[in-house]
Write a structure and sequence with these properties.
By secondary structure, the chain is an alpha+beta fold. It has one domain (3-114). The chain contains 4 helices and 9 strands. Strand 8 (128-135) and strand 9 (138-146) form a beta hairpin. The longest helix is centred in the N-terminal third of the chain and has 11 residues, at 36-46. The termini are far apart.
């Protein structure tokens, strides 16, 4: 587990009811890039015994920028409690997958009031978090905003 993963869990845990945990996820690919929520939902609808789950992809520390990307992400779990990810975005990248059920609950409870079931992603630099939101029509267009809390509502309403 990355140091940034431990730091992130410590910072986010006070804002969640359920324990955040790192899970082992098999990266399969085959889904549509930058479309993790739809990939996970499609799998849940089309595969017996499969549910969608959500949390975070904590990327390796980047020494060139002194940052760690923490991407809000959706993937799946099967009836045998095996996690798998069909989104190609993380293929080949050794990320820590952090399960965060509070994101799922918030998206479910507030579906009609939020713009997307995907919360903002984060950049960790020098112990501080910046929210990052990509425009999926132009993935290179990312908006950044300093964040003062990792509470779930803030993560969904930063932009």
């Amino acid at each position: 587990m990355y140091k940034a993963t431990r730091e992130f869990i410590k910072a986010r845990q006070p804002h969640t009811k359920l324990e955040l945990k790192v899970v082992s996820v098999k990266q399969l690919g085959g889904g549509i890039a930058n479309n993790c929520s739809d990939n996970a939902i499609d799998n849940a609808e089309n595969m017996d015994g499969v549910r969608s789950v959500t949390g975070w992809l904590v990327h390796p520390f980047n020494p060139l920028t002194n940052t760690t990307e923490i991407i809000q992400h959706w993937w799946n779990i099967d009836e045998n409690r095996n996690y798998f990810d069909t989104s190609p975005d993380a293929l080949g990248v050794k990320c820590d997958y952090v399960l965060d059920f509070d994101l799922y609950r918030y998206a479910y409870d507030n579906y009609d009031d939020i713009e997307s079931i995907v919360a903002c992603s984060l950049v960790l630099k020098d112990g501080a978090y910046t929210a990052a939101l990509a425009d999926l029509s132009n993935i290179q267009n990312v908006r950044y905003k300093l964040i003062n809390s990792l509470d779930t509502k803030t993560l969904f309403t930063m932009f």
